[in-house]
Amino acid sequence: MKETVHIKNTGLRGVPVADTKISYIDGEQGILIYRGYRIEELAEKSSYPETAFLLLNGELPDKKGLQVFEGQVGEAREIPGFIFECLRKLPKQAVPMDVLQMAVPLLAIADPELPDETRVGNLRKAVRLISRIPVVMAAWHRIRNGLEPLPADAALSHASNFLWQLQGKKPDPEIGRDLDVCLILHADHTFNASTFACREVVSTRAHMYAGVAAGVGALSGSLHGGANARVMEMLGKLESEKDVPGWVRRQLEQGQKIMGMGHAVYKTTDPRAKILREMSRVLGEKLGQSRWYDLSVQVEGAALAQFERRGKTTLKPNVDFYSASVYHMIGIPGDMMTPLFAISRIAGWCSHIIEEKFAEAQEKPALYRPESEYVGHYCGMMGCVYEPLEARRNVKRKK
Ligand SMILES: CC(C)(COP(=O)(O)OP(=O)(O)OC[C@H]1O[C@@H](n2cnc3c(N)ncnc32)[C@H](O)[C@@H]1OP(=O)(O)O)[C@@H](O)C(=O)NCCC(=O)NCCS
Hints:
399 residues; mainly alpha; 3-stranded antiparallel beta sheet; binds coenzyme A
C-alpha cells in the first residue's frame, strides 16, 4: 500500500473543480458578481425575479421577457392538493428545513414534465421550484400553527406574496422591497457547500429535484445557511446581557464560534453584509426596533476586537450576521430563516444545475468522483483473514 499522506485538500478549499459563468467572488476585495453584474448594483436596481432570470439565462430580461417570467412563476404557485395533505400529516414540531427537504421530492412527483431532460424542460422545472418552494414553506408554517394555507395574491411581488402567504396580512410595500433585496443578495454564491451538493448530485444525471433536495440538506447546517437562525438565537440571549464584550470574550475562550462571522472565501467584509447592515439600521428605526441593530453592532465590535487580539483579522461579518435582525424585524420566525435562504438560493441552485447538466461552462459533462486516501485497517494485498463468527473473540467495540 502506498505511504499515506495525511494532509489533503481538506474541504476542497481553494481547489477549482469546474468552470462557471454564473457568479464570481473576489474574497480579498469583497466583491460578488452575478453574470457580470455587481451585487450592489442588482440590490439597488433589480428585483428578485429579474435577478433569477439573469442567473438562469445569462442576461437580463427585456420588459416583455420579465413579464412572461413573472407570469410563469405566478401561475406555478398553485400546487397539487396532495402536497398539503402530506404536510398536514406531519408532526407540528417538525423542523422547517426537514419539511423542505421532504417536500422537494413531492414537488418532483407533482411535476408533469419530470422526465423531460431537455434544457427548456429544466428551465421550466426551475420556474416551478422558484415559485413553489415559498408556497410550501408558507403553507407549512400556517399548518403547524393550526391555520389554513392561503392562496397566492398575483398582485403582489414575489417577496411580498411570500410574506402574505406566511403571515396572512398584506405587507408594507417597503418591507416587501427589503425582503426582495434580501432574496437578491442570497440568490447565488459560486461553489458553496449547497450549490456544490446540487451540482455533484446532478452530475450523475439525476433530475433537478434530486439535486435541490441535496442542496437543501447542505444548507441546513449551522456552518452554512443555518447560521442566520443561530445569530438570532445569540441576539435573543444577549438581549438581557449587560456585558456584551465579556460574553463574546468568554465564548471565544471556550472555543465557541461567533455565528455570522468568518467566511470560507471572503477575507474581508462580505459585500452582502454591508447592504444588510444598513437595511437593519433603517428598518430598526422605521419599526422602532433599533435594539436588534444596536446589539448586532455591539457584538460585531466586540468580536472584531477579540479577533484582532487573536491575530484573526480576516474574520468579518458574513451575510448571515445582519440578515438575522432584518428577518426578525420583518416577522420571520427563527426556524424559518434558513428556509428563507433556500427560497432565494433556489435560483442559483437551478442555474448551476442547468450549467452542470448541459456543460455550459466546460467541454462536456463530468461525473464528480474525487479520490480519498485509505487510512484504515490493512492486512496486506491478500486482505485480512475472515474468521467465522463463532471463532471471533474480544472484538473491541467503538463507543
Ligand atoms: C464560515 C466558516 C465555516 C468558514 O471558516 P473556515 O474557512 O472553514 O475556517 P475555520 O472554521 O477553519 O476557521 C479558521 C480559524 O478561525 C476561527 N473562526 C472562524 N470563524 C469563526 C467565528 N465565527 N468565530 C470565532 N472563530 C472563528 C476558527 O476557530 C479557526 O481558528 P483556529 O485556526 O484557531 O482553529 C467559519 O468562519 C464559521 O464557522 N463561521 C460561523 C458560522 C457562519 O456564520 N456560517 C455562515 C457562513 S456564510
